Amino acid sequence: MRYLISSFCLLFIACGSYPKKQNLQIQTTSNNMVQNPYFSDEIKDYVYKANIEVYDNNFSGIFIVKKLGDNHHRIVFTTEMGNKIFDFSFSKDAFKVNFIVEAMDKAILINILKKDFKTLIQEKLPVVKSYTLQDALVYETVLNNKKHFYYKTQQLNKIVRTKHGKKKVAFIFSEINDTIANQIKIEHSNIKLNINLKIFD
Hints:
This is Lipoprotein. Helix content is 16%, strand content 55%. It is built from 3 helices and 15 strands.
């Protein structure tokens, strides 16, 4: 009986909420929307040098994001010689694979990339709850039925997607200049998938 009670206690602790685990302090705020400005300008072509590590494969090249209209983006990843690795279109709730190389043409991987890039380009979301952590404001939102936490100091510097109270994916924005994040990392905790982007000079 004592062992059973201990097991329930451990299960309860393990399944604690992400805010509690991260010592986020809930607060009242007037912000009802959180914004991601980094891919929101239709005039700009967002061009990055990219490295994508997925399982035992490593892909390097040029990663391009183009906003074509409201809730409409195109994301293309090519080799430095210009050969396409993948080409995706996002339009509101629609997603289309225009092209993907055979080595990456797996339904599970495509679905993961779809969710990652949707988070990357999503411009604004309703705030569910607000928190503070030291000098950062943290906004809880929901995207694709998953909780996301947006960390902001002066600018948005991190997004964390969670599941069952645990961090699953972290989007880290650094070397920020106005509405351009010169470096972006997408790091997965439960699978071997990491994406590193550095602005193309």
